[in-house]
Amino acid sequence: MLDSSCETGQDADWRSSLPMKLRIRSKFVGILVIASMLPLGIALVAFNWFGGQYFRKSQGRICETAASQLAQEIGHSLRHEIDLLDAWIGFTDLGAEAAALGSALPETPDADFLAAMNSLDVRWPMLPAEADEVRSGLQNSLAQKLRAFQKKNPHFSEILIADSAGRLLAATNKTTDYYQADEAWWQEGIKESPGHTYVEGVTFDDSAGTHSIDITIPLYLGACDPSGKPVAVLKAIMNVMPFFQMVPHSFSQMETTFQVVTSSGEIVSRLGDPTLAPLTTQIGPIAAARFHGREAGWFLARLPGFESVVMGFAPIGLSGHDDDNLVIHGFKPMWAVASRADRAVMAPIHSRIRMISLLGIILTGGFVLLGYYIASQKIIDPITRLRRSAEAISRTARLEEVPAPQGPHRSVSRKSLALLDKVRAIESGDEIGDLAREFEFMGQRILSYHEKLESDIAEKTREIRRDLDFAKQFQSHLMVQRYPEVPPLDQCPALGLRFHHIYEPASSVGGDFFHVMNLDDSKAGIFIADVMGHGARSALVTAIVATLLQDIEGRNANPAEVLERLNSHFHKVVNNSDDVIFVSAFYLILDVREMSATFASAGHPSPLLLDRMGGQIVELTPGLTNNPALGIFENSTYEIFSRTIRERDMFLLFTDGLFECLNADGEEFGRRRVIELCTENQDASVTELTERIVQAASTFAGPDGFEDDVCLVGVEILQKAERPDLLNSPLQHSYDSSPMMPGSRCEGEKEGG
């Protein structure tokens, strides 16, 4: 209710608003005056920083482009040399000649081969060039071809060929050892397929005495070779130092330094500086850490012993043209680097900063005047109108007055009251202070009403929980209370059925349902169903299915006929519902006299048969189609299946909640894991196996548990006398005193006979 003492009319509003506008405007003017002293300094810092970023970025892009061009030229040159070597190998058919030389070597028994190679390797460094062992690899026709190729291509400092056993066949000069099978290049090359080559990064080759790139190519006899295996491996050692210095580059920047470095930061070559020893100088670990991936880029770095530089980099690759057939493996990454001193990069910006600073001073004055005008129109006046509205609402709102609740406040209420205390502490002496007082008054009334509303909700929640407890108890009585004796203890045949189930709804009540029926002295029917969804709605549908099933179960019908009748009755019940309701179901009849199993499925996950005599897991209805769930179509027909059963067979019927449960990563437990558990535990009893499966699924799902209802029913076929400890246990006949309730493991087990 509005205060009766409040003035009304335009004059009163004008008189009350005038002092408030003067109060807040005076504060705002003071803020603008103080803020106007800062723009010059802020502008200088901002322009210097942003301008530096822009110029560094533009120069970084230039260096990146230069590095990319250099990397492309080096990569194309390297690829050209490799393609040239590969083409020469194919043209000269070295594989056939290498195979001939390898076959001419003396045969050594496998047991003595390695010892012989080690003995020769020990003597090899001391053998003169005239020794027969050395001459055989340096003076043959294959070695002459290698030297002829080397003469025309001086970048290759050494070329050698080893056969498929690692023995040296030919070389341009004497190598450091004879047996090559223990070398990494031979081990990689012997594994390569035709059209593939292994290229190692820059290393120091002891045999050639140079910093080199090793190129390894397998030699094959050709398409007519029935074995399809390399007959020898060729290794070509490319001297990279003169090679890198001879690479042409089209860059004219006088202040730009070009280098080739490894991914670990070791400098391989600096263009224009032939005196630099490769792999002895580091570009710096911080800079080297930026070399990753296969993308070009740039960054600002401080190199050891140098000032800051803007550095562009690009990876050196060996990719060829689209029509190249040679595939290259193993090339260790190298990077082309172009860098410029940061001092030279930043020089042009200094003159521009002075001009921008002068312009900033002029603009700052204009912004102060414009800001004052906008604040008056968009901030001060709206705050005044908001204060008036809050005052009117807080005084006239007809919220129900509720007494303050007895006892401690909830944590949320305590937080809200603490916030209101902070609002009450606002004493700015202007419009904002007036607005805070009105807000605090309105908040107190809203919190009081909120406490009353939560009390009503709590009472309704308790009522709903009582209803759910009743529904849970009612649903538990729909489930089988004790298993039937099939056959009875005092009757033949000698085989009997032993049951066990586990039922865990996702909430208080669930949408899964099962039933075990005694059809006659030698037959038992096991029915399992899964209503779409879970919770109270699905539990109500299970009650309907259970009622319809009781009307049908006494009839002498096969599983398909039972599902057809059940579907017809169920469709009539749910047909008038606005929602789509369907139920997947599976019905299994086991006859221990005829040793047969008949079953049918209505869109239900395929159960499993553990054929423990045959040692295999069988899915009963894999990939079954045209057998829809109950309630979808009125006149659905279902296919019936049958098979013989044997002693120790076990059937597992379950709903999709068992194998569709997800872990924290969103991965599904899956039927595969269920089958694997069955395979690993074939000798377990039905009780042990079902417990282990559900425990594994629960552990997989994690602490949040199952999101859907889980029902697992197992039945195994056993001799009556096979488990006398179970037959004589009082637990087997105490179903009334130990009923099997949903939400827990079954405690009553029955073995017929």
Q: Features of this protein?
A:
alpha+beta, disordered N terminus, 6-stranded antiparallel beta sheet, disordered C terminus, Beta-Lactamase, 4 domains, 6-stranded mixed beta sheet, 753 residues, 22 strands, 17 helices
Give a quick rundown of the structure.
By secondary structure, the chain is α+β, with helices and mostly antiparallel strands. The chain has helices at residues 10-35, 39-92, 94-104, 110-123, 132-138, 141-152, 184-189, 240-245, 285-288, 342-396, 411-424, 431-478, 536-553, 559-574, 670-680, 686-701, 724-727; strands at residues 156-163, 168-171, 196-205, 210-219, 232-239, 257-262, 267-270, 297-302, 308-316, 327-329, 334-341, 495-504, 512-520, 523-531, 583-591, 596-602, 608-611, 616-619, 640-644, 650-654, 710-719, 750-751. The chain folds into four domains: 70-241, PAS domain (Beta-Lactamase), CATH 3.30.450.20; 244-345, PAS domain (Beta-Lactamase, 2-Layer Sandwich), CATH 3.30.450.20; 397-477, no CATH class; 493-744, Phosphatase 2c, domain 1 (4-Layer Sandwich).
Structure, explained:
The protein has 753 residues and is an alpha+beta fold. The protein is 43% helix and 20% strand. Helix 1 packs antiparallel against helix 10 (342-396). Strand 15 and strand 16 form a beta hairpin. The longest helix has 55 residues, at 342-396. The protein is flat and about 100 Å long. The protein folds into four domains: 70-241, PAS domain (Beta-Lactamase), CATH 3.30.450; 244-345, PAS domain (Beta-Lactamase), CATH 3.30.450; 397-477, no CATH class; 493-744, 4-Layer Sandwich (Phosphatase 2c, domain 1), CATH 3.60.40.10. The strands form four sheets. The protein has a six-stranded mixed sheet with strand order 2-1-5-4-3-10. It has 17 helices and 22 strands. It has helices at residues 10-35, 39-92, 94-104, 110-123, 132-138, 141-152, 184-189, 240-245, 285-288, 342-396, 411-424, 431-478, 536-553, 559-574, 670-680, 686-701, 724-727; strands at residues 156-163, 168-171, 196-205, 210-219, 232-239, 257-262, 267-270, 297-302, 308-316, 327-329, 334-341, 495-504, 512-520, 523-531, 583-591, 596-602, 608-611, 616-619, 640-644, 650-654, 710-719, 750-751.
